[in-house]
Amino acid sequence: MLKSFKGFLMRGDIVTVAVALIIALAFSTLIKAFTDFVINPIVTRFQGGSSVGLGWQLGKSGNVATYLNVGQFISAVIYFIIFMAVVFFLIVLPYKSYQQRRGVSVFKEDGPEKTCPACLSEDLPKAASKCKYCGTDQPSPGATTAGASM
């Protein structure tokens, strides 16, 4: 039982995911510091004066629990975008190119799609012979319809 557990842990997929998670957590800390100490002061400055942040006080003045802090939300959105860009450009793209060199296709992009003339669903694969929604026969990819020439 322990031998099979060790085999499971030593699979390439598990090790790759573990390393990617560790790298992502390290980048998360770095990006969190960037948003806290660079983006937040810039966003807060837009409020002007000696405000707590960019937002509105909904309750008693000075009560942090009733302060609607839009600046923190904007900062979180910026954090998310930066974090996802870092993960994509520093983890996903290099992993994808590494796997392509090994002959393995990962993170496949969606193929071309066509529209069903009967129900107008737009996500049918080009090679589909029947619509997956209404079941009507689909023209072959090379065929043209009479209505398409108008």
TrEMBL record:
The protein, known as: Large conductance mechanosensitive channel
Q: Does the keyword Lipid biosynthesis apply?
A: no
Superkingdom as given in the UniProt entry? Bacteria
Q: Which UniProt keywords apply?
A: Membrane, Transmembrane, Transmembrane helix
Cellular localisation: Membrane
Where are the bilayer-spanning segments? 73-93
Q: Name one Pfam family in it.
A: MscL
Primary subcellular site in the record, as a coarse category: membrane
How does the record classify its membrane topology?
Multi-pass membrane protein
Q: Which InterPro entries match?
A: MSC/AndL, MscL_channel
Q: Which SUPFAM superfamilies match?
A: Gated mechanosensitive channel
